[in-house]
Amino acid sequence: RTELALKEIMSSGGAEDDIPQAERKTVTDFCYLLDKSKQLFNGLRDLPQYGQKQWQSYFGRTFDVYTKLWKFQQQHRQVLDNRYGLKRWQIGEIASKIGQLYYHYYLRTSETSYLNEAFSFYSAIRQRSYYSQVNKEDRPELVVKKLRYYARFIVVCLLLNKMDVVKDLVKELSDEIEDYTHRFNTEDQVEWNLVLQEVAAFIEADPVMVLNDDNTIVITSNRLSETGAPLLEQGMIVGQLALADALIIGNCNNQVKFSELTIDMFRMLQALEREPMNLASQMNKPGMQAKKPARRENPHKYLLYKPTFSQLYTFLAASFKELPANSVLLIYLSATGVFPSGRSDSEGPYDFGGVLTNSNRDIINGDAIHKRNQSYKEMHCLHPGDLYPFTRKPLFIIVDSSNSVAYKNFTNLFGQPLVCLLSPTAYPKALQDQSQRGSLFTLFLNNPLMAFLFVSGLSSMRRGLWEKCQDYLRKINRDIAQLLTHSRSIDQSFLQFFGDEFLRLLLTRFIFCSATMRMHKIFRETRNYPESYPQLPRDETVENPHLQKHILELASILDVRNVFLENTLDDY
Hints:
Layout: H1 2-13, H2 21-43, H3 56-75, H4 77-84, H5 88-109, H6 113-127, H7 140-159, H8 163-184, H9 189-203, E1 209-211, E2 242-251, H10 263-271, E3 300-305, H11 309-322, E4 327-338, E5 354-356, E6 363-364, E7 367-368, E8 381-382, E9 395-400, E10 418-422, H12 440-446, H13 448-455, E11 460-462, H14 463-486, H15 492-497, H16 501-519, E12 531-533, H17 545-557, H18 568-571
Parallel strand pairs: 1-11, 2-3, 2-4, 4-9, 9-10
Antiparallel strand pairs: 4-5, 5-8, 6-7, 10-12
Helix pairs in contact: 1-2, 2-3, 2-4, 3-5, 5-6, 5-7, 6-7, 7-8, 8-9, 10-12, 12-13, 12-16, 14-16, 14-17
Protein name: SCAI protein
InterPro entries: SCAI (IPR022709), SCAI_metazoan/Viridiplantae (IPR016607)
Pfam family, one: SCAI
């Protein structure tokens, strides 16, 4: 490729003898670095997606080559412009690849700092209009590169909650798609329009708007902040386990999604991350090395959209294998329920159904297997029994599904800490159906105040009142922590997990969610309430009078006290 490029350069730039040796070497070195970078980048897709060790050295080599390539084209821009014919879109492609590297480094490490790095490179492409000349060239494949850049930039902005930038990007992308389809009359117009629709739905998924005084929308972040989780106080005896790994699994067909990320998956991944730090590398500085932050900030995550059973088990086994000592594996399942097809004489861990992680049907002789055969069980259903082998290590499970109660029938075979938090299996008909915009249960775990406002019938709120309620909610969380750690009858698994900040916040939010639903006037059926394995002592947690008083006080601040029962204990 290098020789071919040089021949093309020489034929366009005059005789070979006219090109100084130093400039010829510059072009040769650039072509070599460009080829090497593409080769390494293409090799990334061949790396196994699971396991945390195998990929690191390869990623490091790829980063090194791109660092050299980026600096090289900066230092020799004039020669490359004159002799190689370097175009601005080619510089944009290099910057876009570096952005992709940082984004994939975030996916591999769960360090949110790398999202900021991806954002800075993607932003520079836009600010410097690297792709602006692409539309003048009669090459549809170049325009597609530009459209894909926009789609990737939008994903990074969504993850960083930069919704204002997302809205601007969507407008620009819409114009680009219109121009692209008008000029080239391509067949992928429907797919690109679907991308626009998905992003628009994703932006509007939150059921409540927080507004400034000038009616602009306040962007709320739901990652763990310094004041997020209630602090452990003196006298609280909790375990020393740390959340190290999480599998976030999504398969809700009717739910808003973008780029293989459902809104439930998006909310849960944010609940398992700290606010990102900015590593402050700039485009004109050699800042592309994958520097590891001083300490591990976030648990490692796998995001699995509609995994088959074999894919899911492979990732589970990899997480289990690499789980450090005194660490916890979290499994989050947001998926359609699979119910038992008939009455069973036994009540084992495969007799209550489970959740469907992938909607594909097995094909035999060209025909899908139908469930008329009572003994047939759905292949991609994850049963409680499927998780038994992994309870050899501390396991924290969250199931958001219409058949979450299947996981109540768990058995702790190995005596390790084990907790399952289970969503309601149905919501009251009087509650506006929001399932397409994400599950209410997961919203409580991600943004409890927004969920509380939604069940209270509120759709917007002023920033000042929002912040006042957030302060009160922090007080409620502190009191829930006191109730949980001082309970005399609580299962020790809850306390074992309570030492970890992320799990502590999830547990306090779960109890707040459960207490809120039990006090709400329209949540009157047992299936409307979250449950857990092991069961929580209700009188000391979700039905504690002290907590109920707090919920009524929060409702009073919002002027929605009429939505809740005053004397709940008398109503049971």
